Amino acid sequence: MKKFLILFAILDFIFVGIILKISSEQQRQVASVSTDSELTEGQQQKLELMKSFVFNKTDSEVVLRTNMLQAACATFATIELKFKAQGLAFSGEPPSISHSFSCEEIKKDNSLDSMVTLVADLKSLRNQPAIKKPSSLLRAFAIFSDEELPNEWRLSEIRFGGTDSFSVSEVEINKVLGEDIFKFSLH
Amino acid sequence: MFKAFYISFLLILVLFLGSCGKKGLTLKIGDQDVLALGNVDSCNFVQSASGLRVSWKSSTPVKFIIGSSVPTKYDATIVKAATVWNNYMNRGLISVHRDNTLTNSPGDDRYNLIYWVTDWPDEQAMEQARTGIRWDVSKLRDADIKINADNFEFYADGETNTTGKVSLLSLMIHEMGHGIGLKHINDIVSVMFTHLATGTERSSPAKVDTDSLGCEY
Ligand SMILES: [Zn+2]
Description:
The complex is a heterodimer of chains A (187) and B (217).
Chain A: H1 2-30, H2 41-52, E1 54-57, E2 61-65, H3 69-75, E3 78-85, E4 88-90, E5 96-102, H4 103-108, E6 114-118, H5 119-124, E7 130-132, E8 136-141, E9 152-161, E10 166-168, H6 170-177, E11 183-185
Antiparallel strand pairs in A: 1-2, 2-6, 3-5, 3-9, 5-8, 7-8, 9-10, 9-11
Chain B: H1 2-18, E1 62-66, H2 75-89, E2 94-98, E3 112-117, E4 129-136, E5 139-148, E6 154-155, E7 166-167, H3 168-179, H4 207-214
Parallel strand pairs in B: 1-2, 1-3, 3-5, 6-7
Antiparallel strand pairs in B: 4-5
Bound molecules: zinc ion.
């Protein structure tokens, strides 16, 4: 009988150990979810993902950092950043730039946690419709060589593509993170 | 004693199974819109970053100026384009006059000028015209219409030789629609439909056009 008790005590400790390990791994991978019970599991993850975004613009680059980049690339094939010019439109369409990153490339360096867009590339899209980079593709829409390149921009959408796809929209970014969070000037 | 260990074992087992439900990212398109609730209906208007419709609000009539580059033989057609909108909306929404003294280039100068452009960039040769609008928050402050006279020929209202030419009346109704805030409308009956074939008239705003404008004017 005593042997049984000792065996169960050992089993108990093993189970507690396993549970602690699994829950700490999930903490790292998915981050803790919102307690808002009205959101689905996916929506809670989306909220966490949005809250993990850190945006930075220097003279030479525009950077979006998230500690969930590798987790996102485990599920999706591409991540597309959409930049939109502010306060103007041509024939009903605001000038915009799409920068699409390949998750295959991002996964090659599992310490990578940011997506970088060069300001020089954004500027040169005034004179060419697309730029093909080794691990990403930039495309311009409603940007014209005979119009001034707009100065005020905003990261307006983040689109995750693959078998399943979803996007974080401009309105969602504004609501969850604030109106001016992803704004930047080009010149 | 044995019972206590047995119960604690079962409890831990239940906790363990309960924690197995969580996976990696499970986001999919069905999770898309819940956080975006409350977005304003665009009514086919350009929208600001915060989702507001972009228009001239109460600052009407919107004054378009025919610049010196535009041949005077087209003045009546351009004025008629404004009249068509005004008649369909039953109000003075747009006014047009000529001013040959203005030498402004297209841009943010608060003059809504119409330009006849004879050196259009080659890579955009398919564009019949382009209207640029600029706004603060959601109120328009500038609209310029450029007509591509480099790659297209146009016929005035009433002109009979239309072969291979674009209806300037239809084009100007469309561009003025952009100038007061409308986007393209993917409906062939709309004057805001993207493509206008040569020799084709599309000069009567449809219900979708007037309904759209009714959201703001
Ligand atoms: Zn158009």
